[in-house]
């Protein structure tokens, strides 16, 4: 498996992380907050994504983006950092991230949402969803859903753990489509 990652010059933001095993297009996976995984260093989430996506027809790898690109291995650290930012700077950072997500979503064969319960519904979440789906034109998928309809994170444990080979489902802000044409 080959890999790359793009970080800010200060190293505190990860804009994207790529893993690929063939020349086929890469799935786009959006989660909440980036980890410290890099171009040649995996973490448990990246290893699980590989296991969940490798072998799916038409997918030769994946690109990971995040609703917020600030590296924070603990979501509480991200929330504290977000709360400490001035509004204008935060808006500029988030808009640049949304522009990146929208550009990457353009040619992705599948766009996966996988943030668990960590992305709070509201204006920022709506903007992330709009960027990923090109304003509702392109479908979004999930591995599965939490009990309250959030898209399951790849490292979900226990009863919510996603079995390998399970079909992806179309996700619409907390609902899934179970029709055969919605499955991948």
TrEMBL record:
Which domain of life does this protein belong to?
Bacteria
Q: Which InterPro entries match?
A: DUF1643
Pfam families attached to this UniProt entry: DUF1643 (PF07799)
In Swiss-Prot or TrEMBL terms, this protein is called DUF1643 domain-containing protein
- Its source organism is Methylobacterium tarhaniae
């Amino acid at each position: 498996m080959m890999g790359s990652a793009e970080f800010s010059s200060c190293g505190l933001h990860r804009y994207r992380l790529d893993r690929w095993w063939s020349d086929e297009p890469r799935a786009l996976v959006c989660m909440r907050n980036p980890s410290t995984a890099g171009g040649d260093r995996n973490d448990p989430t990246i290893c699980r994504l590989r296991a969940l996506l490798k072998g799916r027809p038409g997918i030769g790898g994946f690109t990971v983006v995040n609703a917020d690109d600030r590296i924070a291995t603990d979501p509480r650290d991200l929330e504290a950092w977000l709360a400490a930012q001035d509004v204008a700077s935060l808006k500029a950072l988030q808009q640049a991230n949304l522009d990146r997500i929208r550009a990457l979503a353009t040619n992705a064969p599948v766009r996966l949402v996988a943030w668990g319960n960590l992305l709070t519904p509201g204006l920022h979440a709506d903007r992330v969803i709009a960027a990923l789906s090109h304003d509702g034109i392109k479908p979004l998928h999930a591995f599965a859903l939490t009990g309250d309809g959030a898209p399951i994170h790849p490292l979900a444990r226990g009863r919510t753990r996603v079995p390998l080979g399970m079909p992806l489902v179309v996700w619409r802000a907390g609902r899934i489509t179970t029709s055969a044409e919605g499955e991948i």
